[in-house]
Amino acid sequence: MSNNEHTDSAKRIKLDISAPEIVEREGILFGMGNPLLDICANTGEDFLQKYGLDPNNAILAEEKHQPMYKEMAKMVNVEYIAGGATQNSMRVAQWILQKPKCTTFMGSVGKDEFSETLEKKATEGGVVVRYQKQNDHPTGTCAVVVTKNGKCRSLVANLAAANNFSKSHLEIPENRALMEKAKFYYISGFFLTVSPESILMVGQHACENDKLFSMNLSAPFLSEFFKEPMMQAFPYIDILFGNETEAAKFSEVQGFGTTDIKEIARKTAALPKKNSNRERFVVFTQGADNVILAKGGKITEFPVIKLSEEKLIDTNGAGDSFVGGFLSQLVQEKSIEACIKCGIWAATEIIQRPGCSFSLDVCYHE
User: Fold this and answer.
1) Which residues contact 12 (CB under 8 A, 6 or more apart)?
2) DSSP letters along 262-329, please?
3) Backbone angles phi, psi at 312, to 5 degrees
4) Would residue 320 show up in a list of annotated catalytic residues for this protein?
5) pLDDT of residue 125
6) Residue 55 domain-assigned?
7) Which of 17, 111, 204, 276 shows the smallest number of beta carbons within 10 Å?
8) Does any domain span residue 41?
9) Nearest 5°: phi and psi at 78?
10) d(Cα 318, Cα 143) in Å, to the nearest integer?
11) Residue 130 structural domain
């Protein structure tokens, strides 16, 4: 089957969103992370070299990176897109579920125009947003530097207000009620740099109430430089996401002694876990290569949908979209295999558009 035939066939597959089990699922999925306004631009390799960036990586902004935001804002092809890893995943899950208020998102923003844009985009998509708003810090931004005709994206996050989220926001009665109402939870690894105590609060609640808690490795630097808070949260993780680069660094830091992604997934799934009622699943994506699932000591591979060169626009948001698609099925209590297949479909849709954006008239039924 050719790439184009594979793609066309995949688009004919439909996902049943009319299933009765989601009718009463308002607030079933809770996400927490860093809401950021993405500043996206296609550039040449020289721009990466100028700011010391790798073509496929995610880092926190340093002082040397500050001028790049203004420089990108002046580029003719610049786009502003509501972003932040967890918020992206919530928006994609909500898009697929097509029933308002299934998802809730919390994070920290400034009181400015950027936060209004973020809230407008998320709310329009049906996500219930509960931002902690900061007076003294602007809304965070993320430079998305796209190179090699959309194949590579380098993310540089200037967290600003997002870095000031506090556990106290979760303790506000109406916010705590939203958190406790949910049955499924997702937090990206990036939030480990912001509020580990909030992650533990949610993880402990999920564990004590036999709810499902998921996280993402998110970036190689987190496994290395935020190892302690990561491993404090790890026993609560029921489902872990990541990509091949993140998995390799995690293996190195954990001393697994292997670079084989299947073995890394298997060893990661076997790490100590609090809730013995749920086995841990590990899901690693590999770009255009097979998705790896570690489940019950066994490895299963899932082929991704191949796209022709001209259809690939921007890989930014692919991982977030995969998670969003996965979670949209998880809350409907579909099989893990069905969750992965929807994740692949969602990621394939998003990489044909700039940033983590989607067409509201695309309806996917099984």
Assistant:
1) none
2) HHHHHHHHTS--S-TTS--EEEEEETTEEEEEEETTEEEEEPPPP--GGG----TTHHHHHHHHHHHH
3) -80, 115
4) yes
5) 87
6) no
7) 276
8) no
9) -70, 145
10) 16
11) 3-34+83-138+162-350
Question: By three-state DSSP, how is residue 42 classified?
Answer: strand
Nearest to 360 by CA among 177, 94, 111: 94
Left, alpha or beta for 300 (phi > 0: left; psi -120 to 50: alpha)? beta
CA dihedral 215, 220, 223, 226 (to 10 degrees): -100
Strand order in the sheet with 152-158: 57-60, 152-158, 141-147, 36-42, 79-83
311: CB partners within 8 A, 6+ apart:
7, 352
| Angstrom distance (rounded) from CA 220 to CA 234 | 16
Amino acid at 218: S
Give CA–CA dist 343/56, Å, rounded.
21
The answer to the question of residue 66 being in a domain is no
pLDDT digits (tens, 9 = 90+) for 285-331: 998 899 999 999 999 999 998 887 777 765 667 899 999 999 999 99
Both tokens assigned to 192: 């480990």
Q: 256-261, long-range: CB within 8 Å, 24+ apart, which pairs?
A: 261/286, 261/292
Number of structural domains in the chain: 1
In this predicted structure, the answer to whether residue 5 has a pLDDT above a threshold of 60 is: no
Q: Of the candidates 34, 14, 361, which has an alpha carbon nearest to the alpha carbon of residue 194? A: 34
Strands of the sheet with 239-243, listed across from one edge = 128-134, 103-110, 29-32, 184-188, 212-216, 239-243, 281-286, 289-295, 298-302
Residue 366 confidence (pLDDT): 61
Copy the structure tokens of residue 365: 């039924």
9 lies in some domain: yes
CA atoms within 13 A on the CB side of 53: 30
Give the torsion through C-alpha atoms of 167, 195, 112, 26, to 10 deg.
Answer: -60
Give the CATH number for residue 116: 3.40.1190.20
Q: What is the torsional sign of CA 108, 110, 113, 114?
A: negative
Within 167-226, residue ranges assigned H as helices are: 167-171, 173-181, 196-208, 220-225
Q: Pick from 318, 345, 339, 99: which is nearest to 214 by CA?
A: 339
Determine the average pLDDT of the residues in 108-126: 92
- Amino acid identity of 229? P
Identify the helix (H) or strand (E) that includes residue 55: none
Query: Which pLDDT does position 29 carry in this prediction?
Result: 98
